[in-house]
Structure formats: C-alpha cells, structure tokens
Amino acid sequence: MNDVNVVPHEVPGHRHEHLVIIVNGREKIVMSKEVSFAEVVQLSGLTSGPNTVFTVTYRHAAGHKHSGTLTEGETIKVKDGTIFNVTATNKS
User: Fold this and answer.
1) What's residue 11's pLDDT?
2) Which domain holds residue 76?
3) Are 19 and 29 a contacting pair, CB within 8 Å?
4) Considering the domain boundaries, does residue 27 fall inside one?
5) pLDDT of 25-65, one tens digit each?
6) What angle do CA 82, 58, 52 make, to 5 degrees?
7) Burial 45-59 (b: 16+ CB within 10 A, else e)
8) 74 vs 14: CA distance, rounded Å
C-alpha cells in the first residue's frame, strides 16, 4: 500500500473557525468563541503549585463586558485580538 496524503473531509457549510487571542504578549489560537479561566491559565504556560493563585485580566473581549477580571470557574466570549494577562502569586 502506498503512502497517501489524506485531506480531511470538509462538511459543506461547516467551517472550522479559529480565533487568535493574546496571552501574556503571545499569540495563541483557540477553536472556540468562548474560553475558560483554566484554559487561559494553561495557555499562559505559567507553572503552578499547591500554593499558586492565578489572576487573569482581559480586554477587547466579545459580548457585553469588554474588559475585567476572569475568575476560576468563569468563561468569557472572545474575538480575534482579545488580550489576557495572567499572573501567578504564591499564597502564604
């Protein structure tokens, strides 16, 4: 059997949409118009430990609230160019 490059089957009328967001100054691609606190923290690449607390702020978001703070368990609607800043602190 020969090796063949297979192109994924495209469903007519269905687009695989991706958005480019900025996390701590770096472009990241997401496949959804909504991201969670946990996803943004993971995209930041910051390491965590048992005493690590993350703070996530955002601006240029989609929806009714364009800027603010995202807390654990929350999600936010994003668009191309939404900016996130993630900081990690150790609680003592």
Assistant:
1) 44
2) 19-90
3) yes
4) yes
5) 999 999 999 999 999 999 999 998 899 999 999 999 998 89
6) 125
7) eeeeeeeeebebebe
8) 28
